[in-house]
Amino acid sequence: MCKHADQTKEVIDHLLNDVYPLLDLKIDHALQCFNLGASITPEKDLINDLLVNLKHEFHSLATYEEKLVFPSVLKVFHAKKAKTSLPNLGDLLQLTNRKENRINHYVAKIDQLINYHLWETGKQEELVYAFSNNFVQEKACWNKMIQDRLSSCNCFKKNYFEVARLYEDNLLNLANRSSKKN
After folding, report:
1. What span, in angstroms and rounded, lies between the C-alpha atoms of 118 and 120?
2. How far apart are CA 97 and CA 95, in angstroms?
3. Nearest to 127 by CA among 140, 111, 116, 105
4. Do 135 and 57 meet the contact criterion of CB atoms below 8 Å apart?
5. Burial classification of residue 51, based on how many CB atoms lie within 10 Å of its CB (0-12 exposed, 13-18 middle, 19 or more buried)
6. How far apart are CA 22 and CA 16, in angstroms?
7. What is the pLDDT of residues 23-65, one digit of tens each?
8. pTM (2 decimals)?
């Protein structure tokens, strides 16, 4: 295993143990905020819906990455030719990117609504700040690191492209078998 694998594991641990729990806490605080709950403004329900959607999408992203993306990335460092079965990492990262974009959309909508200051929005402002800064920066670092691994880490690059080729070969074989049955 190369040093990049160790560094990648450290980044994954940082996201799972430091960044994601803090963001989850910020969401909970924003949802449970007394000032939001006591507000009688019509925007209250919209903010609450956005916070619930943000929480759902964020938990979905965190679970998806913890269970599938992060283990797959680490497996690429250890992939053995034709012996390792991995999902297409490109597809996994593309789905992750879509989830990140939805999260950023919810945060932008919340930010837009709380700028009217219809109640004491401190907890919601903290949430927007945390996602607009911490989440965006951490995910940008993660995505840049993956791109760097593809361009500069021979171990990762070789295994990634080999696994991607095997994945495409398997899809082609499945399609050929399916067409022969018909």
Report:
1. 7
2. 5
3. 111
4. no
5. buried
6. 10
7. 999 999 888 876 666 666 667 778 889 999 999 999 999 999 9
8. 0.76
